[in-house]
Specification:
The chain is of the alpha+beta class. It is about 15% helix and about 20% strand.
């Protein structure tokens, strides 16, 4: 996922999985009201990125 190509951080949705890990997903890729990663389709999940890979792990 290229953050800049997607329109910046303002166009991302922050989604957590059941273990509390956070993912950034472009709003345009999500097809519904998503609350957690387990609700994402395979296509939606492929557009998301593990936040700790681009922010660091000091918060996660």
């Amino acid at each position: 996922m290229n953050i800049n190509k997607q329109g910046g951080f303002a166009n991302l949705v922050w989604v957590r999985d059941k273990d509390g890990k956070e993912y950034a997903c472009p709003i345009v890729a999500l097809k519904g009201n998503i609350r957690n990663k387990e609700e994402l389709s395979d296509e939606e999940r492929a557009s998301c990125m593990d936040v700790s890979t681009f922010v660091g792990t000091e918060r996660w």
